[in-house]
Specification:
Largest sheet: 4 strands, mixed
Bound molecules: glutathione
Strand order of the largest sheet: 2-1-3-4
Oligomer: single chain
Helix content: 40-55%
Shape: globular
CATH architecture of the largest domain: Up-down Bundle
Order of helices and strands: EHEHEEHHHHHHH
Radius of gyration: 18 Å
CATH topology of the largest domain: Glutathione S-transferase Yfyf (Class Pi), Chain A, domain 2
Structural class: alpha+beta
Number of helices: 9
């Protein structure tokens, strides 16, 4: 490593949360850079050179510059915690499950949650959005509940970066996915109690 990893975000609780949590779990040195949208930091020439989309999070790790929170976590876990927080290709059965949950977190769950933050003009539209999110979460629960009833973490092998991704995203669907569902509530309690999550101020 050529010095600390630089992590660009706007706040502790934006999508940089999962990256910061993973860095804390791995004990890898990093430096936070908090950008202010209202000051135009996301549009500055220097930041656009790192992330032309003008979004956060972005990391710079030596010669590697990367955006998209899931890609960043996949990269970091492979590079600094392979076989520990990220199953390797030699553990292909676990690796397959790991990739599934890493991608599910952003590609399915976070996409559904994002619907709740899209502008709706009328109470009817709001009710329709809630109905949709609830319907999707019922489907997600059909898979999550049996799994988390028989094991502590999403992989049978134990805690991994996939729990970080899931744990950072699930609270966005608290009322649809967590409340009243004992196995998911207990899972979230386990994750929230982790020292690294507390240091990263995820919750
Ligand atoms: N899929 C991207 C989403 C990135 C994203 O939209 N980040 C938000 C903050 S959480 C952002 O940068 N918004 C810019 C803005 O509000 O202008 C990821 O997971 O990194």
């Amino acid at each position: 490593m050529t010095g600390p990893i630089h992590l660009y975000s706007m706040a502790y609780q934006d999508r940089s949360d999962r990256v910061r949590w993973l860095l804390e779990e791995m004990g890898v040195p990093y430096q936070n850079h908090f950008l202010k949208k209202s000051s135009g930091d996301l549009d500055s020439e220097s930041y656009r050179a790192l992330n032309p989309m003008g979004r956060v999070p972005t990391i710079v790790d030596g010669g590697i510059t990367l955006h998209e929170s899931a890609a960043i976590c996949l990269y970091l876990a492979d590079r600094y915690a392979a076989g520990c927080l990220a199953p390797t290709v030699e553990q292909i059965d676990l690796r397959a499950q790991y990739l599934q949950w890493m991608v599910f977190s952003v590609g399915s769950l976070e996409c559904v949650i994002a619907r709740m933050f899209t502008h709706v003009a009328t109470p009817e539209q709001k009710a329709e959005t809630h109905r949709f999110v609830n319907e999707q979460c019922q489907i997600f629960k059909k898979v999550l509940l049996p799994l988390l009833s028989k094991q502590e973490y999403i992989l049978s092998s134990g805690f991994s970066a996939a729990d970080i991704m899931l744990g950072a995203v699930i609270p966005g669907a608290q009322e649809f996915l967590v409340d009243g569902e004992a196995p998911i509530e207990a899972y979230m309690q386990r994750l929230m109690a982790r020292d690294a999550a507390i240091r990263a101020r995820v919750f």
